[in-house]
Amino acid sequence: MSKYKVFYLDDEKEDLTIPYKNKLEITGLLDINLNKPYNFEKELDRLIEELKSCDALILDLQLDGPQEEDSAIEGKGSEEKKANDDEKKFKVRYQAPPLAQMIRTLASEGEIPDLPIILCSTEDKVKDSFNRDFTSHDLFDWTFLKDDIDEETINKIVSLIGGYQMLNKNKKDFSTSLGRDYNELDQRILSRFIIEDNPPTHEIARVIFKDIVQPTGLLINERTLAARLGVDMSKNVGCWNAFIDKHFSKAKYDGVFHTSWNRWWNDRVNDVFEEITNENLASLDANSRVSLLIEKTEFKDLIVAEPIELFESTNYWNICEITEMPLDPFEGFKISGKEEPKPWQDYAFISLFAIATKPDLIKKNGIKIHPSDLERLSLERKKID
Questions:
Q1: Are 265 and 219 in contact (CB under 8 A)?
Q2: What is the pTM (predicted TM-score) of this model?
Q3: What is the mean pLDDT of the chain?
Q4: How far is residue 33's CA from residue 379's CA, in Å, rounded to a whole number?
Q5: Cα separation values, 233 from 155, 272, 284, 304, Å
Q6: Is the same domain home to 241 and 178?
Q7: Which residues contact 363 (CB under 8 A, 6 or more apart)?
Q8: Per-residue pLDDT tens for 120-133?
Q9: Beta carbons within 8 Å of 308's beta carbon, 6+ residues apart
Q10: Which domain holds residue 252?
Q11: What is the mean pLDDT of residues 97-106?
């Protein structure tokens, strides 16, 4: 299998960036072309040529560290050489977002191929700069932290590349891209692309990835699947894995980006549960759901999930974003995002237990409670303080 070529732009010194490059190449799937930034116009000229043969672009968030020109001046005296070295140094006066914007524009105009643009940085820089600038979030397909590079990071980059390649081939064939008949879905999701003659691939990719794959709604992740079935997936992993492989494979999402983002179609999960039990999933509590699954299938070792501490309901439908444990959304507290969920999306939730016991994690993740739940939270806090 040939490697995917990735152009990586970072202003840090090589003793810092080469270890990142080596980590990204460790599985043999990626060929990382590591570079320091030029001034804006020169960098654009380089990228226009380089990206024609690349599969993805990785940008460091802050590219404005001092740089040096490529050419060296030899045979000079030490004073003259020092003066020339000082002249060669220059200050890059841009960061990743404006460069990404130009790359997206050039791709829309057909000057360069449309490919994933991935942001990388340190935790502090993402928190202090990027997370506050909502306007630039849609320019990047995904963000990873440099200190957290592992095999999952690599696999997600590969999945993004594969998704773009599929979308470039089947740009307006949404049924192929999503792995199911698009007519079965909410037509509002991709409607703007149906009437456009040649929509940019990165726009389609953004809507599919950020409006369908990442949020809970049409698709659900494995933790949410377990919550809705009422099962504690961590107590008997082998039984759980065999159970979902046997009975819920028909509900599995196999569209673009599925190789690294494990998802299930929510409506099909409901249908499968009803086929097995002849009952409506949402109308039952966790004990009833699991009892029926044990009764109607060969998986007798499924274990009911217990409520999160400080909660009582087992009418699970979502998870706490901090503990990843199941919760009843009527007990949980909605998380405020950069915008309200779209009609086909759910809110994300956090539990009172996480709020009371894990304030550092909440701060680290930038979680804020939705204004509509602040009064109720204040009342609940008084009960436990």
A1: yes
A2: 0.91
A3: 92
A4: 55
A5: 23, 18, 18, 9
A6: no
A7: none
A8: 988 776 655 555 66
A9: 320, 323, 325, 326, 327, 351, 352, 353
A10: 215-305
A11: 96
